[in-house]
TrEMBL record:
This is GTPase HflX. It comes from the Bacteria. The lineage of its organism: Bacteria, Pseudomonadati, Pseudomonadota, Gammaproteobacteria, Oceanospirillales. CDD domains: HflX. It holds the Pfam family MMR_HSR1.
Length: 436
C-alpha cells in the first residue's frame, strides 16, 4: 500500500487538550484506546485546557516545550494528538519538537491500514490516506527544483513538489475508477437480492460496541472480533433465518466514531452503501459504556450524513450481562419493537431480536392447511426447504396434507414458481387435522 505504515511498537507521547463544550471536544479515554488499537506504546499523556486553538502550534508555546521535554525524556518515536491538526500546525510542531507528529485523523487511518483485508478495503484505505497526505506534501522536501533535461526542456523544470502532487492526483484518479468498478459489482449483488425480495439488515453502531460478536453469534460466521476499536473494516454478508420470515441478509459494517473524518466517510462510500441500501438497521449499543448516550448521538450523526436516518432502526443494547439485567424487548407507542436488550457474548435475547426483525420486515402471515397432489411435489419440497411445515399427513385421495406457517408473499412466490393458482387447493383447516 502506498502509505501503509510499519506495524506498531512506536513509543508515543499522547496529547489531549480540553476545549469548551462544542465541536472541538474529544474524549481522552477513547483516545488512549485508539492508540492501543493502533499498536503503539503510550508512554505518557499530556493534557491541558484552551479556549481556542493556537493558529501556529495548536497548543501554546509553553505546552509545546512540555511536549518536547516529554519526547526527550521518554525517547518517544511519535507524538499523537487527539485532535485534527492543520498541515502547517503539524509542520511547525515537528520543527519545534524534532519528532514525528500525527493527528487524530492520521491515527485512525493508520488503524484502518492495519485492519483492511479485502481488495476493496485496501483501495478505500489508500484513497483516504492519499487524500490526507496530499495537503502535507510540502513536509520534508528541501530540493524544490529538479532538472527534467532534454532538448527544449532545460531549466528549472517541474519541481519535486509538483511531481509528487501530479503523481498523487493520478493515483487518486486510478483508485477512484477501481472503486467505481467495485461499487458497480456490489450494486449488482444488491439488485439480485432485491429481485429475490430478500431483505437486508445492516448492523451499525459505535466502534467496539460488540457488532462483530453479535454477527458471529447470530450467523455462525468467523468475522474477526476483538476488544479493540475498528476490529472490523470490511463489510461481511451472511444469511440469517428468522422465524415466520425465512432468510434475510445480515451485513456487518465498520464501526463509527465521534468526529469521523469526512474524507474517510467519502472514501468508504462503497462499504457504507450496504448501510444505505438496508431495509432495517440494527443499532448496536454498549449499554454498559459511560459515554453511551454520546455514542448513540455520534452514530445518529453519521447515519444522517449518509442520508439513512429515515431507515427503520431497532436499538440493540448489547452487554446486558455487565449490568446484571435480563434480556427484554421494548415497544414504541405504536406497538412496534423499538429496542432489544441482549448479550451477544452469552447469546441471550437472540429470540427477541429475531422477533423484532420479523415484526419490522415481515408481512401478514399465512397459517393454514394445504392439500398437495403428487404432481405438485416441487411445492412440497420448497415448503420444507423454507422450514414452513408444522405438520404433515395424507388424505384418502393420496394427497399430502400440510399445516404451514410462512409469509404470504413467500407463499405466493412459491405458487408462482410452480405455476399453481393461489386458490387452487387451499382448504379450510379441519378440527380433526389439528387434533391428530
Amino acid at each position: 500500500m502506498f502509505f501503509e505504515r510499519a506495524q506498531g511498537g512506536d513509543r508515543a507521547v499522547l496529547v489531549h487538550i480540553d476545549f469548551p463544550e462544542g465541536d472541538d471536544r474529544e474524549d481522552a479515554a477513547e483516545f488512549v484506546e485508539l492508540v492501543s488499537s493502533a499498536g503503539a506504546d503510550p508512554v505518557t499523556l499530556i493534557t491541558g485546557k484552551r479556549s481556542v486553538r493556537h493558529p501556529k502550534l495548536f497548543v501554546g508555546s509553553g505546552k509545546a516545550e512540555e511536549i518536547k521535554a516529554a519526547v526527550k525524556a521518554h525517547e518517544a518515536d511519535v507524538v499523537l494528538f487527539n485532535h485534527a491538526l492543520s498541515p502547517s500546525q503539524e509542520r511547525n510542531l515537528e520543527r519545534l519538537i524534532e519528532c514525528r507528529v500525527l493527528d487524530r485523523t492520521g491515527l485512525i487511518l493508520d488503524i484502518f491500514a492495519q485492519r483492511a483485508r479485502t481488495h476493496a478495503g485496501k483501495l478505500q484505505v489508500e484513497l483516504a490516506q492519499l487524500q490526507y497526505q496530499s495537503t502535507r506534501l510540502v513536509r520534508g522536501w528541501t530540493h524544490l527544483e529538479r532538472q527534467k533535461g532534454g532538448i527544449g526542456l532545460r531549466g528549472p523544470g517541474e519541481t519535486q513538489l509538483e511531481t509528487d502532487r501530479r503523481l498523487l492526483r493520478e493515483r487518486i484518479g486510478s483508485i477512484q475508477k477501481r472503486l467505481e468498478k467495485v461499487e458497480r459489482t456490489r450494486d449488482q449483488g444488491r439488485r439480485a437480492r432485491q429481485r429475490s425480495d430478500t431483505p437486508t439488515v445492516a448492523i451499525v453502531g459505535y466502534t467496539n460496541a460488540g457488532k462483530s460478536t453479535l454477527f458471529n453469534a447470530l450467523t455462525d460466521a468467523d468475522v474477526y472480533a476483538a476488544d479493540q476499536m475498528f476490529a472490523t473494516l470490511d463489510p461481511t454478508l451472511r444469511k440469517l433465518k428468522v422465524d415466520d420470515m425465512g432468510e434475510v441478509i445480515l451485513a456487518d459494517t465498520v464501526g463509527f466514531i465521534r468526529h469521523l473524518p469526512h474524507k474517510l466517510v467519502e472514501a468508504f462510500k462503497a462499504t457504507l452503501q450496504e448501510t444505505a441500501e438496508a431495509d432495517l438497521l440494527l443499532h448496536v449499543i454498549d449499554c454498559a459504556a459511560e459515554e453511551r448516550d454520546a455514542n448513540i448521538e455520534q452514530v445518529n450523526e453519521v447515519l444522517s450524513e449518509l442520508a439513512v436516518d429515515e431507515t427503520p432502526t431497532v436499538l440493540v443494547f448489547n452487554k446486558v450481562d455487565l449490568l446484571g439485567k435480563p434480556p427484554q424487548i421494548d415497544y414504541d407507542a405504536e406497538g412496534r419493537p423499538a429496542a432489544v436488550w441482549l448479550s451477544a457474548l452469552d447469546k441471550s435475547g437472540f429470540e427477541l431480536l429475531r422477533k423484532a426483525i420479523a415484526a419490522w420486515l415481515g408481512d401478514e402471515l399465512f397459517i393454514g392447511e394445504v392439500a398437495i397432489p403428487p404432481r405438485w411435489s416441487a411445492l412440497r419440497a420448497q415448503l420444507f426447504a423454507a422450514d414452513a411445515v408444522q405438520k404433515e399427513d395424507y388424505d384418502e385421495s393420496g394427497n399430502t396434507v400440510l399445516r404451514i406457517r410462512l409469509q404470504k408473499k413467500d407463499f405466493q412466490r412459491m405458487l408462482t414458481r410452480c405455476g399453481i393458482a393461489q386458490d387452487a387447493f387451499i382448504a379450510p383447516p379441519t378440527k380433526e387435522f389439528f387434533e391428530r
